[in-house]
Amino acid sequence: MSSPETRNNGVSRPRYKIAAIPADGIGPEVVGAGVTVLNKLAATQNTFDLTFENFEWSSAYYKKHGKYLPDDALDVLRKFDAILFGAVGSPDIPDHISLWGLRLAICQPLQQYANVRPTKVLRGTQSPLRGCQPGDLDWVIIRENSEGEYAGHGGRSHVGKPWEVATDVSIFTRHGVERLMTFAFETARSRPRKQITVVTKSNAQRNGLVMWDEVAAEVAGRFPDVTWDKMLVDAMTTRMVLKPESLDTIVATNLHADILSDLAAALAGSIGIAPTSNLDPTRENPSMFEPIHGSAFDITGKGIANPVATFWTAAEMLSWLGEKKAATELLDCVESVCEQGIVTADLGGKSTTVEVTNAVCEEIERRLKR
Ligand code: NAI
Ligand code: MG
């Protein structure tokens, strides 16, 4: 995965090449914060190296060049070990142009079919749910990231006429569902509770999601040590709110998990803390790591964006690259800073992005320096 580098003293250690794509809105603010913290962590750990290359692909790039990505972008990205992404979306460009032009234009061809979204109540923060303590809400949502409702199949004809037709066709392939379910059950198996909930809507969607359920049951047969249950997506929202402690790993379609994971982030305290990994589990292509949130036009440039989602994202990236100890320590430092009350406004605090970033760097330095 990494590019080994031989040091002066003859000891070789991993060096990870990261492509940074900050893009739009608060993306540059939070990715800048993430790179600062990652550099501090690498310097303090002193067991691996990180190099970053910044790419200006964004809505500003689109306005200048008429496209979000240069033609060789995927070949360029394939040379990196991982991609750290900010957010894409600009008030003067339709969202479907920006999303498909940049984020999906990377995820889909790079076969990042598993989208992993852990959520928990961080120490020192509060869930809006009465009585929900850290530990009561500790989930990982696995989102299908390559097909389903966002497969891109459909079209419009007779545009603007009273008889206009527009379709977005959900695509479910046995191959796509089977590989995603396998990844989700493996994730459930790796967590202490070994428990997974398969989210569906097979009462109303009687083709694709009936196959989804059947494949889930087949895959479950290969994981006898994992307890599983099935939940209709509408009922799932009530269970997430009323019985958060009854859930652990959750697997859902592209659309369902998109919605449920924003709900999950809010239930854990804020959209500003939630990370996401777009993984190619085969490791043929680099995976992409980003905060769940978007460009947040309303707070762009104000210096108050919560960088915690990007810090947790950075920890997920390190974990995927094999640096699990550094990943655990980074998240632990972030939680300690939250416990000290150094949090941004979305978490009820008064600190700025830079103040939270500096506090995390100081915590890393204090605890990890050897
Ligand atoms: P959003 O996530 O950008 O913002 C929703 C609300 O959460 C806003 O009030 C915002 O201020 C707040 N928020 C988000 N991140 C925050 C942070 N780190 N700290 C503090 N508060 C934060 O979602 P919205 O408004 O639906 O979308 C804005 C734009 O972002 C649109 O163009 C949309 O298409 C795009 N978008 C891009 C995504 C991506 O690149 N992966 C994901 C979601 C939206
Ligand atoms: Mg979303």
Automatic annotation (TrEMBL):
Residues 17-360 form the Isopropylmalate dehydrogenase-like domain. Its EC number is 1.1.1.83. Its cofactor is Mg(2+); Mn(2+). It catalyses: (R)-malate + NAD(+) = pyruvate + CO2 + NADH. SUPFAM superfamilies: Isocitrate/Isopropylmalate dehydrogenase-like. Keywords: Magnesium, Manganese, Metal-binding, NAD, Oxidoreductase. Pfam families: Iso_dh. GO terms for molecular function: D-malate dehydrogenase (decarboxylating) (NAD+) activity; magnesium ion binding; NAD binding. The keyword DNA repair does not apply. InterPro entries: ICDH/IPMDH, IsoCit/isopropylmalate_DH_CS, IsoPropMal-DH-like_dom, TTC_DH. It comes from the Eukaryota. Belongs to the isocitrate and isopropylmalate dehydrogenases family. This is D-malate dehydrogenase (decarboxylating). It comes from Helicocarpus griseus UAMH5409. The lineage of its organism: Eukaryota, Fungi, Dikarya, Ascomycota, Pezizomycotina.
